[in-house]
Design a protein that fits this description.
19% of the residues lie in helices and 36% in strands. With 240 residues, it is of the alpha+beta class. The protein has 2 domains: 96 residues, Ribosomal Protein L25, Chain P, CATH 2.40.240.10; 92 residues, Beta Complex (RNA Polymerase Alpha Subunit, Chain A, domain 2). Strand 4 and strand 5 form a beta hairpin. It starts with a strand and ends with a helix.
Length: 240
């Protein structure tokens, strides 16, 4: 997906393309059960230091938590993906049968950028669940606003939707073809797949998901043009 870094009317636009290898939407992860009494700060620090495991907690629909440890290599692959919070993980806890789970929260150490702790939620595949889906915009080359030097401002990086686990998409694409400078794409205007709806918002009914604004360069150029036109008009009056 190309993103506009800058531009001006009649000038060249600077685009870049980001390509990342996406992990599979479903992966099987083997975890090791841990005693809750050994889930403290010192034990967790020792676990991360002496092994390639990260402490984790799995919570089911009834609120019961299971403490375990996950392989940090698998978590790093998921963490680098935009769809990390909607990747289905088939968790195999010791000798139990695998069950589906989703990542709810990843705690990262800000200095070393290492994963410190992970929270997962176990769910029923037959019941709708709330997941966060990344938002991407497409067809920027067909947008009149971008051609004029406008910049795409992505207000929502992700959207929380309600759907079944079998219908979870990796991304939600927003088509900005035909959008001009000053136009907005609202949350309720997004094209969602069937059997999917936006989760209720806590404080408002709707909000802009994406807008096309004006760059500072284009605003300065327009201001210079107005000042030049005003100066020419003033010179014409003086000559008369």
């Amino acid at each position: 997906v190309g993103r506009v870094l800058g531009g001006s009317p009649g000038g060249e636009r600077c685009l870049y393309t980001r390509k990342k290898k996406k992990p599979p939407s479903t992966m099987v992860v083997g975890v090791k059960r841990t005693d809750p009494e050994e889930f403290g700060t010192r034990s967790s620090r020792r676990l991360r230091r002496t092994s390639n495991m990260v402490p984790a907690r799995i919570q089911d629909s009834s609120g019961v938590s299971t403490y375990c440890s996950l392989d940090i290599g698998v978590l790093n692959k998921v963490q680098k993906s935009r769809s990390r919070y909607n990747t289905i993980m088939q968790v195999k806890l010791d000798e139990d049968e695998p069950f589906p789970a989703l990542i709810r929260k990843i705690q990262i150490e800000p200095v070393s950028d290492r994963i410190q702790h992970v929270n997962l939620v176990r769910y029923n595949p037959e019941v709708g669940i709330e997941v966060d889906i990344p938002v991407l915009w497409i067809n920027e080359e067909k947008s009149p606003g971008v051609k004029k030097g406008g910049v795409v401002n992505q207000v929502l990086q992700k959207v929380r939707v309600v759907c079944r686990s079998t219908d979870i998409p990796k991304t939600i694409e927003v088509d900005i073809a035909g959008m001009d400078v000053g136009d907005r794409k609202w949350l309720t205007e997004l094209s969602l797949p069937e059997n999917m709806e936006v989760a209720p918002l806590p404080h408002y009914d709707n909000c802009p998901a994406l807008t096309i604004g004006r760059t500072r360069v284009s605003m300065l150029e327009e201001r210079k043009q107005r000042e030049a036109a005003a100066a020419e008009a003033g010179d014409g009056k003086k000559k008369k």
